[in-house]
Amino acid sequence: MTNKIKNYYAELFKKHGNSPAAVQHISTEDQYKRFDVLCSDISKNTSIIDVGCGLGDMLSYLRAKGFQGKYLGLDFVNEFIQHNKNFYNADLKANFMIFDILKDEFPKGYEQIILSGVFNNIMDNNEYFAKTTLQKMFNASTKQISFNMMSTYVDYTNDNLFYYNPLDIFDFCKRNLSKHLLLKHDYG
Fold first, then answer.
1. What is the pLDDT of residues 8-36, one digit of tens each?
2. How many other β-carbons are positioned within 10 Å of the β-carbon of residue 153?
């Protein structure tokens, strides 16, 4: 991820504070709709990594749903990680750390690795970044990975966001990660 994107999120956090707008979301309801899909297979005592955790909203969502497992939030924005360490300091099964997806190795021993929103920003080589990230997530997870991305099958686009062809991504995952896939294209 680039310094430009990191600075962009730091500025959003400075401007909006602890709110969905700081992580480029419209509302908590919009976030939770995505979390419902991404977290549908999570049992209450599993261990998860939340890639691009932002302000830890997925942890709040999971705890409200009865999740009691181990949680690790990873993000490359220091301001988010510092906020989360303070905000969630009473949660003894939650931890947060600075993480660079392309440079760092994912921590081992987590059953599920979830990524939400990380692939939305435009960068020099979105396809390479997404495929490299997915491969690293799959290699580190002991059970499964879940992720979302913007689809090219939409009625409108935002010039500031990147859209993937879901068939290309499905093909990559099928050929390189697993024969057991689920593509959901029915929400949003």
1. 999 999 999 999 999 998 899 999 999 99
2. 10
